[in-house]
Design a protein that fits this description.
The structure is a single chain. The chain has 360 residues and is of the alpha/beta class. The chain folds into two domains: 3-223, Spore Coat Polysaccharide Biosynthesis Protein SpsA, Chain A (Alpha-Beta Complex); 253-349, UDP N-Acetylglucosamine Acyltransferase, domain 1 (3 Solenoid). The protein contains seven helices and 30 strands. The strands form seven sheets. Strands 5-4-1-6-11-8-12 form a seven-stranded mixed beta sheet, sandwiched between helices. A six-stranded parallel beta sheet has the order 14-17-20-23-26-29. Strands 15-18-21-24-27-30 form a six-stranded parallel beta sheet, with no helix packed on it. Helix 3 (85-92) crosses helix 6. The longest helix is centred in the middle third of the chain and has 13 residues, at 227-239. It is elongated. Bound molecules: guanosine-5'-diphosphate-alpha-D-mannose (GDD) and magnesium ion.
Length: 360
């Protein structure tokens, strides 16, 4: 096993309003573009050839990752003219694969942070003789995912993408977005039209009697679909809860990138990242947050579980809790921004303009 396909296209994959031009896979998590973690984990598991299947803004991936040699990978890019869906995207890159028909090819959704043991997934695939093996994880609310019930031997019995009715919620096992396909199965996906691997390919394979195998692995797993999840994922990478060989530095309470300036009595905890050229003032308290490059945090600010976009400024004694602040935004002093608030890129909030607590 040496090859993988990384799916990084489709709709809704930009982390608005965090940045205007940066697609989500390139937003830094623990100091490096998120995709770096997936690529480095694949490399560590023995993958040496990765095809990135993308349908938009491909031009941002290639200048950064190039031919992949700095990661020890041979990296190729294929851009769809129109989004082809997950299955169409996989089929569209089949001619870049070198694997023989019976050899396994790894496929990853590009928005997942996972600690799954990739080698075990491949070993399970080979050992069970399956056509396709899916990494499954358990979640309390499976409605936003693909439900994958299995029998006692781990054989997949159905694939129900985004169940609509309570009756359809037959399991808490979901598709975790990492698969091993036999190369020959990829070649059976129709070419040149949109195909959903979840809604068409998997149900079709099951109807045709193919052997789909599920491996439930309950190690770290997070879908980075929301900015809040992204902040959590970045902090977990820094804390070492989400394992990645690409974290630039030792895991611990904080990751302070080399050119950041942090005042002596500022306190950074809970997996906080201080981006390059950021400046953090005296007495600031920052917990579990991601501060991107060039952020300025004034003295006494208190920031928790928040994402602060590149070049944004946070005024003195301002409180952020579960907030997303877009690139270049300026939040004046003495504001209080809480759960779920999203401040658009370059927006300006005057001093003392927003509070959630009573006047004092
Ligand atoms: N190249 C390409 N072209 N990639 C695509 C396209 C496309 O047309 N459509 C989606 N993708 C990529 C996305 O960038 C993402 O990395 C992955 O395929 C999955 O698509 P999402 O749009 O993020 O799907 P989802 O999150 O709603 O559901 C998927 O992931 C869940 C786990 O997070 C499904 O695979 C579910 O079954 C699964 O449970
Ligand atoms: Mg997703």
């Amino acid at each position: 096993m040496t090859e993988a396909i990384l799916l990084v296209g489709g709709k809704g994959t930009r982390l608005r309003p965090l940045t205007v031009n940066t697609p989500k896979p390139m937003v830094p998590a623990a100091g490096v573009p998120f995709l770096t973690h997936q690529l480095a984990r694949a490399r560590a598991a023995g993958v040496d050839h990765v095809v990135m299947a993308t349908s938009y803004l491909a031009e941002v991936f290639e200048p950064y990752f190039g031919d992949g040699s700095h990661l020890g990978l041979h990296l190729e890019y294929v851009t769809e003219r129109e989004p082809l869906g997950t299955g169409g995207a996989i089929r569209n890159v089949a001619d870049r694969l070198h694997s023989a028909p019976d050899e396994p090819v790894l496929i990853f959704n590009g928005d997942i942070l996972s600690g799954v043991d990739i080698r075990s997934l491949v070993d399970e695939h080979t050992g069970s003789g399956a056509d396709v093996t899916l990494h499954l994880t358990r979640v309390t609310d499976p409605r936003a995912f693909g439900l994958v019930p299995t029998d006692a031997d781990g054989r997949v019995t159905a694939f129900l993408e985004k169940p609509q009715t309570p009756e359809e919620i037959v399991t808490d096992q979901i598709n975790a977005g990492a698969y091993v396909f036999n190369r020959s199965v990829i070649d059976t996906i129709p070419l040149g039209r949109p195909v959903s691997v979840e809604r068409e390919t998997f149900p079709g394979l099951l109807d045709a009697g193919a052997h789909l195998h599920g491996l439930v692995d309950s190690t770290y797993w997070l879908d980075l679909g929301t900015p809040q999840a992204f902040v959590r994922g970045s902090a977990d990478l820094v804390l070492g809860r989400a394992p990645s060989p690409a974290v630039p530095g030792r895991c611990g309470e904080r990751l302070i990138l080399e050119t950041a300036e942090v005042a002596g009595d500022a306190k950074l905890t809970g997996g906080t990242v201080a981006g390059a050229r950021s400046a953090i003032g005296a007495g600031a308290r920052i917990e579990g947050s991601t501060l991107l490059d060039g952020v300025r945090i004034a003295p006494g600010a208190q920031i928790r579980d928040s994402l602060v976009g590149a070049g944004a400024t946070i005024g003195a004694h301002t409180v952020l809790d579960g907030a997303v602040v877009g690139d270049g935004a300026v939040i004046g002093e003495g504001n209080e921004l809480r759960s779920g608030i999203r401040v658009w890129c370059d927006a300006q909030i005057p001093a003392g303009a927003v509070r959630f607590s009573s006047d004092q």
